[in-house]
Protein 1
Amino acid sequence: MAEPILQVRDLCVRLSGRLILDHVSFDVLRGRTLGVVGESGSGKSVTASALMGLVPIASGSVKFGSREVAGLSERAWRALRGRQIAMVFQDPMSAFLPVRSVGAQIDEQIRAHERLSRTDARARTVQLLQRMEVPDAAQMARRYPHQLSGGLRQRAMIAMALSCRPDLLIADEPTTALDVTVQAQILALLREVSQRDAGVMLITHDMGVVAQSCADVVVMYAGVIVERGSVETILQAPLHPYTQALMAATPEIDGPRPARLATIPGQPPSPASRPQGCVFQPRCGYAHEACGRRPPLRSHAGRDVACVLYEGAA
Amino acid sequence: MSAWRALVRRLDARIAASVLAVMVVACLAAPLYAACVARTDPFMSNIGGSFSEHGVTRDIMQPDDNPLHLGLTPIGPQWHAQYLLGADGQGRDVATRVLYGGRSSLLIAAASAALCMLGASILGICAGYFGGWTDTLISRLLDIFWAVPVYLFAISISIVTISHALRIGPFSIAADNLLLPIGIIATVYLPYAARPIRARARSIARTDYVLAARGYGASHSRVILREVLPNLWDLIVTLAPLVIALTLLAESALSFLSLGVQAPAASWGTIILDGEGLLYRRPAIAIAPGIAIVTVVLCLNVLGDALRAVLDPKAGGRV
Amino acid sequence: MRSVALRLGQGACVLVGISMLVFAVFFATPGADPTARIAGRGASPQILARIRHDYGFDRALPVQYIRMMDKLFVARDLTSFVDHGERVVPEVFAAAPVTLSLVGGAAIIWVGLSVLIGVVCALWPNGIVDRVLMGLSVLLLSIPVFWLGEVVNLVTQSRYHDTMLFSWVPPLGYVPFLQSPSGWFRSLLLPWLVLSSSFAGLYARVLRAELMAASGEDYMRTARAKGLSPLRIMLNHGLRMSWLGFVSLFGLDVAQLIGGGALLTEVVFALPGVGHLTYRALTDLDLPLIMATVLYSAAFVVIANALVDLVYLALDPRLRTGTRHG
């Protein structure tokens, strides 16, 4: 088993009094990309923010390597951010400051964490851009975000994230805002990064993206992890009704075109209206009495799943 | 009206509104104060007058305390119902004049703000709703006027109208008519109020509900009255206190340059001007109306901020 | 290059238009006829007729207009109608440095102050410091500038002039920089502070609002994720974007002030600047002086607008379309 870069145990996050993340636990292993899947509002992005120290952690443990980071001071978090944990955002157009050149923004991050001269920082920036397969990197570094194509911008974003050789790269929907042709390239790049540079945690709502580029997957719903395991296991035989519904809602690329794409009836609950028992119960076709109690994640058929259907049958 | 309730809940809005109300009521009660408390005529020169306190009669104009006792200085503030803030250069009761001055200042400020908002709404809605060349023409004109220094613009119109009265055909407006400063100040702040109204009207004109209303065959006037105006209302309400604050400041500046309210009438600006000559000896004359101006303008600005916070929470205090 | 030429052309058109407007309004104003004024009280009809002829008031208005423009720009010997023989152009050029000194210093103070206040407030929003500074800003915004000037004069010229604190304050008036740099500074320090007060309040509020609006943007989140300190984030990212709105406001305000909008401050502190001069020209209905000051003022507004556009180009690369390298 590969060594864990990140261990999250029972992470809870509260925002304005509402429980947004409810005892979330998972590991990111070296060389294996972890996919975090869920609908919008499922708590994926809040998880990322919590791991970046951008929202306060209410309780639980977050370990980088062997270092516990939950409860660190803001100053300590700042030294960690960008240096050990870096983040790539959905829309590279709005995530870059439009009025400074891309290179200057990458230099800034390098110089914020390491004592380097301007020229040295720029040299590293150009080198990073080259590694991200940006053509004519020295020229590109001098351009402004709006002068680059969407794919190049996202490559520059990843270069910036990797500029201080972080242990973990969190990519929050990194391909959603890009053209389909570019999406595959960026995913391939991220796969390479996970093998060569850092652990990657890929946040997405797209099961197809998970299938393409992740080794492990965590399925989140309403701030709770409902299923967790390796991608092969879960994609081949999803157990949790929510995972099954999510899979059914994703068309297969080379399968027959479905007459009608399956949808999940109802709306995901807001943090205020979260059900007492199983969080998926109101929308679940299998709901019955036992669902009034919140099922814990239990190991079943090679993965962990939080559903009463599989309790006791291990 | 949840906005109204939210406004009432705000402490700053409550305080500002109360202080404003007190100021307005006090100024409206000026004749009462003059007749019952100060017992003087605020507009009549009273250089030879005297007043008595505890049986001691004192001249209002006192000899200067220079060695030769040349010249006269009005008495300063007294702990007495009369001449609470002292007398001005003509022996008139300053406290009474400040109250009377407030009447003119507040009246001019409110009236010119109302006129300005009315004109700005018409211009802004026409430009924003109809667009095209109407918009280009009105917007360019507003831009040019806004590039002229506000006070110099007001001074120019004042000089043309006040020093020579205004004759438009058979109508003539005397130089001391309050309509002149009201009209002038309303004119110079037209662009300030019209530009945001135009921007909002423009975005409303492109909404689906306006397009739908036009599609049903509603006339322009009906769409403007039924669809555009109701959606502009919160902007107009938010702008109003800020415009009154600006018109009040402009009125006092014009009057300070003796181009606003004309003697013998008084406004806060003219009283500051009266006090300028006696500034070093009797500062109360110039300071009192200034404090009144600052208080009212401050309350209006606070009220405007509170209104904006309540009506347009997303703007978050954007000016 | 072509856009620069276009701008200059537009500016020239605006100036011509404004001068014509001023000219037309002046001759349409009742009681503005300069003949009687030049002749003085009780002049005989013969004298009036001679003056009318000498000054060319009997010619057609377009001819008079061309002659005035010629005297103003080409010969530069246009004289006042009111003060006999007083040349207008040197008068404006004598007043300009006073106003430039006043407005320049005040602008530095208000920009510095408002950036400080705006950034501090945006760093700790809704805290005690934010509330106090924002309250102060509204207060500054609410004080009439001429009254503040008078109160400052009262304190520094009279009441506390002899104390240690204010004994350095020179008497009201202007000291040219070349005559005495320290005197220039001392004579202008208080006018600077008074003039900048309301602008500092206004700009601090504008900047705070802009920074607060920016703090929700994606690029600010990126900056936080990069591990930068809050101050760095505010200065390098927030302020870099908020400058844009700031610059257009600033350009217009400074142009207006240089063009005579600082009139009230100049009057209260007895500074013989352009605002003062324009005010005198207007109250005397002295057309040559009005023409000179108004054109001077309009020229500044035109120049300032062009400068604002240039600064925009420098600050916002998105506007530099067609450029391939930054």
Protein 2
Amino acid sequence: MSISRRNFLSWMGAGGACALSATRSGASPVQEFPGYAESYAVLHDSTKCIGCRSCEQACNQVNALPKPEKPFDDLSVLAEKRRTSAGAYTVVNRFFDASGQTVRYVKTQCNHCLEPACVSACFVKALQKDPSGAVRYDASLCVGCRYCMIACPFEIPAYEYDEPLTPRVMKCTLCRPRIIEGKLPGCVQGCPTRALSFGKRQELIAKARQRIWEHPDHYQDHIYGEQEMGGTNWLYLSAVPFSRIGMREDLGTTSAPELTSGALAAVPMVAGLWPVLLAGLYAISRRKDALARSEQKNAVAETVNRAQEETEAKLAALREKMTREKEAAISYEVKKALDEAAKQAEAGEEAEPDGSGTKSSKEDT
Amino acid sequence: MAGGHFSRGTFQWRPFHVIVGLIFLAGLIVTVLRFTGGLGTVTNLDDNNPWGLWIGFDLLCGVALAAGGYVTSAACYIFGLKRYHTAVRPAILTAFLGYALVVLALHYDVGRFWRLPYPIFVSQGTTSVLFEVGLCVFLYLTVLFLEFSPAALEWLGWKKVRALVVKLTLVLTIFGVILSTLHQSSLGALYLIAPSKLHPLWYSGYLPVYFFVSSIFAGMSMVIFESSLSHRFLHRKMDERHIRESHDVAFGFGKAASFLMISYLGIKLVGLAMDNTWQYLASSWGGWFLLELIGFVALPAFLFAVAVRDRNLKLLRFSAVLSVLGLILNRFNISLIAFNWHLPAAERYFPSWMEIVLSIFIVTLGVAAYRFACIRMPILYDHPDYS
Amino acid sequence: MQTMFHTLHAFMLHTKSITYLLVGGLLIGFLLFWFFLTGRDDEDPQA
């Protein structure tokens, strides 16, 4: 849980919506998911495996897979570590103890996780978890993107790389068609040493516990697959730490859907909040533009006004000046006329001051 | 690419054409082999390494380097930085071509290419991060097509349709940013499901954030890089305004990228602190990780800053190239190099020459299409009828 | 929701599918609401 929760928190932090961090939006806030209680499983007691490859042969026949290069009774293939492939849904690998004396075998195939990474990763629902416990593959939907192979922590799904146009993802089916008919999976039926037991998952876990309890010196006190990656429908017992028989012990118990739930939960938050954020930024920049524009307009208007006022002031000053000059001219003329009149009056006493000068100056105005 | 081009009807073979012709021929051969012999014939992919160069480079780098489209259009239309206007069309064109080629490359990589629409139209696996990527890439390719269309419509002279599309600019830009945020980050989120396969130095809950942030500065660097190429090879197609403004755009983006890269460095360190993965720094993986961060993030960020302070265009362009290389290195690390780090050397992946040829073919296709568009359409100049 | 979900995956498939549809609707709704919200804005808000 901690990882998905942290992912989610980190995402929300980035999205700036920390208020939502209180709920596990990625998964479910209240529900627990028990899985399919009646699902089938296989318990592989690796201490009983003798590396005879009978399971491989049975699997090959039941699933009508192509004949391998070397026959199944040729045990020289065990010299190299093998993985599942498009032609082999299951393989047995051999491991030596540190001393090089003791030999251990372990069978590998799809573990049919309770919360499969491949199912969570498939973007066309070509992979589905079935109530029987099997992880089913539907080739009629598969695009061939191979994200399931990236996602699988056990490195199980294989691909038909040599098919040009109709490649399929190939992996163990838990022999679902057979178990529905009431038969055993091919490998279980083919196993001569009872290293494989088939049954309900709950019962097999109980059985495995009992074996560990009865033979504490013989078994590691761990059922591989009970918790790994959220649990699997294939369970393992071993005499040595599982990492010594090629199984990863660092996978943790967090299921695949939990790993991506945080990022997926952020998607609707981004889609829901980004439009507002972006439209807001747009509105702000537009308003700034508008303000700048209107400020510019105001500034222009003010300049025009000021210019106008200045012109008017100048005009007024000019007018005033002119008026003053004219007044001066008038008073000068009046004075002149008066003076002349006085002179005339002094010169001759006819006393006829008709003021012609004054008149003419008035007409000028 | 010595500037030789079509000269009035008579076509002359020049080195550029010969090289492009050879690449196309090689690409054609690989195409035939891929669709007759399957991925096994042309690639080094195997059951442990299902994603190779075509995803690591063509998809992850292609999408990230096409981020210039949403970054530039957002800067211009949403943030109102008008001086980026002349950079919008080249960036949108790059993005459109980039995404179109990503989708083309996916046709080679997936098993049944005709089912690529399945996740959207037939069977929706909504729990998959890849579903989110697919949906967003599909929608964003549509958005980019619409955003790019005015240039083509001006070229064709369809004024009415153009006027209609131009009205949608803001909506398309906002939608483009949302979609880009989602799928750029989701490409990083693809790897969240595989903590057991990706080296702890690169695996982080913050992967989506890292992918998103790095796409922004990579997109900016790509715009700077491309504008330098345009100046060199398509100068005659640029009008005065584009030439005048392109340097401002370059320095603006250089400044933004520089600051963002410093912040990216910071959040990368926070990632180490959150997961307490410091001890891995002492290993050889740590050296590689630090090379990526110091050599291809911190260094270009610093050089960007120096270039902006000194207004040194040459240094700016150099930093842009370094930063683009840094992004490619980061995506390679996450998808190829630090992925499956736990496997023994013999089981690791290295691309086949045919995978490399096809990637070069795809890039060449992009360059050729870009050149085709820039020569004919009003990308690097304003169409006189619409300015 | 009365549907019984046996696995977290089944639950997420159900909820994410609804969420994607919801988000698609929301985005269209946001757009329409934005037009309603700004329908009477003058060309120049300062005028």
